[in-house]
């Protein structure tokens, strides 16, 4: 019986192709708008997360500076910097730390092949590759002797390599000489490209052993920043707390002293940003959902017209023995078939649209089964809700009156 | 002698109330036996349509008793009456009331659908009913592709597909020309005589009523005359050729 009624409903939808299409248009637009918004929003969230994780997984950045009215990092001039022993202490005394890279930075002109390029020179240990989530495209990391001796070796980023040596990506430039300030170093490795991100061009860099940087570039044994990467799955909050405690102890800060360093947490940053994106996505989805409601009203409208138009048909069905519930079911199923059809078309449209738009907006496209399913179920539910009133009206018709209807 | 199939006792039907009150039926007593062919006649407003609606269990009387197969049906609920209709009654209307853009076969299958029969049963019964009304081979035609006479045949096939006890025909020839009317009457007569189906027919055309074996005349909500037709028409003019000429 249910199947027959379903077939009847399908037939009636097919009989009025144009009208059915126009009726479901509202649902189609509503469903596709909701799905597209949510899919794009998720894509954008994912893009931001990817950019942040490309900084390094579960990364804590310890920087000198006082927490003041100027915000974190303000007034870093007068506060003490770090030492390599700070890094060693953190690595050895705090649990859940995967790697600690002390690093110094300088903005320097580098020269090779008669070409000149202004870049950021970073001096650090091999731990920097772990904390910064870097891979080598070619060559090797630093030897322990090179680190200890402050040898003239360097590893260059893809942008520096391209600007100075040209040629093949990730290859050309290996083994060449690069002049950094007043000394020449040998290129022993090339970093894999991270690509352009929202955080600027991370590939525009030259990496030296920390001691090399201190000895030949900055001329100071101080370390500007510590990057600490946590072990996979480690909880950042307690780790940050013990890190802070350790640093305070090492700096002999008394109870009333403020921190003269800051700990930034990329995980926290990622959570904050994706949380904001999530709110925005829900908001966009909610706005789009209003159009679903409008689509539902369209279905109710057409179903009411349909009931009026088919009054005689309903009268006949009742006369030949259709129960009230059966007539009601027929019209309800018709409304659900219409709206579910709209939902299906909407899902297809949304898949195409969000694939295309995500390409346009340069965010990753990821099919989200749950929102698609939800939109489908919701559109069917709209059919039930908005089909109920017309269906009840049809079922309650008086067969005699209905048969007489012109 | 067994009890009549249909017994009406003091059936009244009142519409409206107060000054607008209208007594459409005023205390009708009527017995109809199984296998009868009854023509219900009368001028407009005489109550014949109201009587037909009550007989067809589409309407309930304001007062009185209606026994169908000895069971009281005057106080049944809507759905109970629908179940009774789908089981025992077949309807033929003046305006055919076929579903548009739906094949003859599917139109005829409709009552079986509500009875809950399976597809194979429905299909076989509908084919058989269409053959019985002389429309074998026309199963796939939609009402738009059929003449008025053929459409009414489809409607009759739909009425008999459930093998009902009673077929109620309300002005079945009202929309047809004379020749088609006679063909339809021939068909109803055959259903009555060959298949033993009780036929109740409302008509105001004496030519058509002449096929019935009993004529009940309504005037002002009462039965004015209930007579046996001594010489019912037994063969419609050119009715024998009906199958081919439609």
Describe this structure as you would to a colleague.
The complex is a heterodimer of chains A (406) and B (246). With 406 residues, chain A is α+β, with helices and mostly antiparallel strands. Chain A has two domains: 2-51 and 271-404, no CATH class; 91-232, no CATH class. Chain A has helices at 2-15, 17-54, 84-93, 127-131, 144-149, 158-165, 210-218, 236-250, 266-309, 311-319, 324-361, 369-395, 399-404, and strands spanning 59-64, 97-112, 115-124, 136-139, 153-156, 177-180, 183-191, 196-197, 200-201, 205-209, 225-230, 261-265. In chain A, the strands form two sheets. A six-stranded mixed β-barrel of chain A has the order 2-3-10-5-7-6. In chain A, helix 3 (84-93) packs across helix 8. The longest helix of chain A has 44 residues, at 266-309. Chain A is elongated and about 105 Å long. By secondary structure, chain B is of the alpha/beta class. Chain B has a single domain (35-49, 78-245), classed as Rossmann fold (3-Layer(aba) Sandwich). Helix content of chain B is 34%, strand content 25%. Chain B is built from eight helices and ten strands. Chain B has helices at residues 48-55, 78-88, 104-115, 119-132, 148-160, 178-195, 206-209, 242-245; strands spanning 6-15, 22-32, 37-41, 63-68, 71-72, 89-92, 166-170, 198-202, 214-219, 222-228. In chain B, strand 4 and strand 5 form a beta hairpin. The model of chain B is unreliable at 239-246 (pLDDT under 50).
């Amino acid at each position: 019986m249910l199947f027959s009624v379903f077939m009847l409903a399908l037939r009636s939808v097919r009989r009025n192709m144009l009208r059915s299409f126009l009726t479901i248009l509202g649902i189609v637009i509503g469903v596709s708008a909701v799905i597209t918004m949510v899919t794009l929003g998720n894509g954008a969230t994912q893009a931001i997360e990817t950019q942040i994780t490309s900084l390094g997984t579960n990364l804590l950045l310890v920087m000198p500076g006082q927490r003041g009215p100027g915000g974190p990092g303000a007034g870093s001039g007068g506060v003490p910097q770090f030492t390599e022993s700070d890094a060693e202490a953190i690595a050895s005394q705090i649990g859940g730390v995967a790697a600690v890279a002390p690093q110094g930075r300088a903005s320097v002109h580098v020269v090779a092949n008669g070409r000149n390029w202004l870049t950021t020179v970073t001096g650090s240990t091999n731990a920097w590759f772990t904390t910064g989530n870097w891979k080598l495209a070619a060559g090797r990391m630093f030897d322990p002797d090179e680190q200890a001796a402050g040898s003239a070796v360097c590893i260059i980023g893809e942008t520096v390599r391209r600007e100075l040596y040209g040629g093949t990506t990730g290859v050309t430039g290996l083994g060449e000489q690069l002049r950094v300030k007043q000394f020449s170093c040998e290129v022993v490795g090339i970093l894999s490209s991270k690509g352009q991100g929202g955080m600027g061009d991370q590939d525009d860099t030259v990496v030296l052993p920390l001691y090399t940087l201190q000895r030949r570039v900055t001329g100071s044994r101080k370390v500007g920043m510590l990057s600490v990467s946590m072990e996979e799955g480690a909880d950042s909050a307690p780790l940050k707390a013990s890190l802070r405690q350790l640093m305070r102890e090492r700096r002999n800060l008394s109870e009333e002293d403020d921190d003269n360093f800051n700990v930034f947490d990329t995980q926290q940053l990622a959570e904050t940003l994706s949380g904001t994106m999530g709110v925005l996505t829900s908001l966009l989805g909610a706005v789009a959902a209003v159009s679903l409601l409008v689509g539902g009203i369209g279905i109710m409208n057409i179903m009411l017209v349909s009931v009026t138009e088919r009054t005689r048909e309903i009268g006949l069905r009742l006369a030949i023995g259709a129960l009230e519930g059966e007539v009601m079911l027929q019209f309800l199923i018709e409304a659900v078939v219409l709206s579910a059809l709209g939902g299906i078309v909407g899902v297809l449209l949304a898949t195409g649209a969000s694939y295309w738009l995500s390409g346009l907006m340069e965010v990753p496209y990821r099919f989200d089964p749950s929102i698609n399913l939800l939109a489908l179920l919701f559109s069917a539910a709209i059919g039930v809700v908005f089909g109920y009133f017309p269906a009840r009206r049809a079922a309650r018709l008086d067969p005699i009156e209905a048969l007489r209807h012109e | 002698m067994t009890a009549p199939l249909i017994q009406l006792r003091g059936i009244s039907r009142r519409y409206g109330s107060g000054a607008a009150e209208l007594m459409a039926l005023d205390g009708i007593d009527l017995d109809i036996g199984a296998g009868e062919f009854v023509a219900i006649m009368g001028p407009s407003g005489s109550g014949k349509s109201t009587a037909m609606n009550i007989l067809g269990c589409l309407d309930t009387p304001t007062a009185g008793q209606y026994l169908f197969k000895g069971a009281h049906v005057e106080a049944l609920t809507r759905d109970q009456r629908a179940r009774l209709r789908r089981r025992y009654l077949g309807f033929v209307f003046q305006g055919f009331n076929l579903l548009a853009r739906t094949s003859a076969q599917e139109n005829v299958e409709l009552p079986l659908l509500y009875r809950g029969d399976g597809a194979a049963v429905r299909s076989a019964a509908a084919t058989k009913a269409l053959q019985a009304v002389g429309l074998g081979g026309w199963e796939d035609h939609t009402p738009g592709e059929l003449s008025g006479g053929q459409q009414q045949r489809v409607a009759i096939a739909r009425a008999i597909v459930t093998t009902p006890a009673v077929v109620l025909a309300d002005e079945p020839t009202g929309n047809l020309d004379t020749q088609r009317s006679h063909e339809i009457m021939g068909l109803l007569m055959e259903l009555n005589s060959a298949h033993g189906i009780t036929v109740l027919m409302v008509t105001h055309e004496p030519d058509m009523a002449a096929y019935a074996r009993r004529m009940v005349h309504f005037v002002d909500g009462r039965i004015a005359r209930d007579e046996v037709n001594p010489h019912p028409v037994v063969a419609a003019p050119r009715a024998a050729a009906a199958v081919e000429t439609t």
